[in-house]
Amino acid sequence: MFYTGGLPYNFARNPYYRSSYSYAATYTIQGYVPPGYNALRTTLLQKERAHFERLLKPIKDFWLENGVSIIFDGWSNPQRRALINIMAVSNGGLVFIKAIDGSGEFKDKHYIAKVLKDAIKGSGHEKVVQVITDNASVMKSVGAFIEVADTRFASVVVMLKRLKLIKRCLQAMAISDQWASYREDDVGNAQKVKDMILSDLWWDTVDYILEFTTPIYDMLRVADIDKHCLHLVYEMWDSMIEKVKVAIYRHEGFEDDEYSSFWGMVYYSIEWLLEDPKCISPHRDHEISMERSKCLDRYFEDENDLREVKVEFATFSRWRFPSPDALTDRWALQPLVWWQYHGSSFLTLQTLVLKLLGQPYSSSCAKRN
């Protein structure tokens, strides 16, 4: 069990595990016959699957009203087999759908599209809000999803944090006798590295970089979860960008109302808009409006529902609420809570919004499983 079944060694410390062997060695269970090969692979397996389906039913029933996201990610197991994990994530929790052994398959866009369609069909196409994949080229070539941006890892920030943590060790290394012998391999680079490690100015620059990038890094870490937090993005962004501004202005010695060119590059600003006449603020962006219309046209197949949601959206955009609390609560409540409490005035739009805000936006759950 431990060497071929993959059980962790800590399991041997479990008192129930140990007592089961003692009981089996001491007592005879009258009439007990261990399950045979055929029963294990047929009837007992079917019963076990049915048992798990009953456990998952409350979660899957949740999908119709609140929507579900299909998470799709490829990986290689210890035997170097190419596997594809397919998960379903919603407010109700994470459900493993299946793992596909892609060994020997030519994983082109046609193969990937078929796998995705099967996963959507198996979960119920009317329940699926979105599909999240990685940014592999074959995923992009499928052509069914919106590509927001190329993936960017924070490895540079992580490395700088690590360098700062071991600063004293690095400096001791650079002045050691062993470093002097290493210099013979590449004198120029070795001296450059030594000068940087021993430079207070260089370490001050590292501190400054970490000071204004840490809030960004922390927000990315919070967002990289398998729970729904799309409705928290704006609040997290506001908090993050304010911390970045404080770090930059403190370093540059500026007052809050003064202009910082570096801050202007980091943050969405009027100066950024004026750099290019094609840049306009989001609420006047034609492309955003067109994409929203395309989304609504595809989602609402019934013309009456489509017309209703357009009217509701126009009313919502003008902040025409029957309750005065709805206007003040937009600053006090999280968006998901606001729509649950005040959204009944825009019933069709509320249904769509709650499905959207209830979804994750990371494939991390597939990677961790």
Protein traits:
single chain; 369 residues; alpha+beta; four-stranded mixed sheet; 19 helices; 4 strands; extended
Can you count the beta strands?
A: 4
Helix content: 55-70%
The shape is extended
Helix/strand structural class: alpha+beta
Cα separation of the termini: 21 Å
Q: Which stretches are low in confidence, meaning pLDDT under 50 for 5 or more residues running?
A: none
Q: Specify the number of helices.
A: 19
Topology record:
Blueprint lengths: L14 H12 L10 H5 L1 H24 L1 E9 L5 E9 L2 E9 L7 H15 L4 E5 L4 H6 L12 H11 L1 H8 L2 H6 L4 H11 L2 H24 L9 H20 L8 H6 L3 H6 L10 H14 L3 H15 L6 H9 L2 H8 L4 H11 L6 H4 L2
Parallel strand pairs: 1-4
Antiparallel strand pairs: 1-2, 2-3
Helix pairs in contact: 6-10, 10-11, 17-18
How would you describe the overall organization of this protein?
The chain is of the alpha+beta class. It has four domains: 9-151 and 361-367, no CATH class; 152-198, no CATH class; 199-270, no CATH class; 282-357, no CATH class. The chain is 58% helix and 9% strand. The protein has helices spanning 15-26, 37-41, 43-66, 109-123, 137-142, 155-165, 167-174, 177-182, 187-197, 200-223, 233-252, 261-266, 270-275, 286-299, 303-317, 324-332, 335-342, 347-357, 364-367, and strands at residues 68-76, 82-90, 93-101, 128-132. Strands 3-2-1-4 form a four-stranded mixed β-sheet. Helix 6 crosses helix 10 (200-223), helix 10 (200-223) packs antiparallel against helix 11 (233-252) and helix 17 runs antiparallel to helix 18. The relative contact order is 0.09.
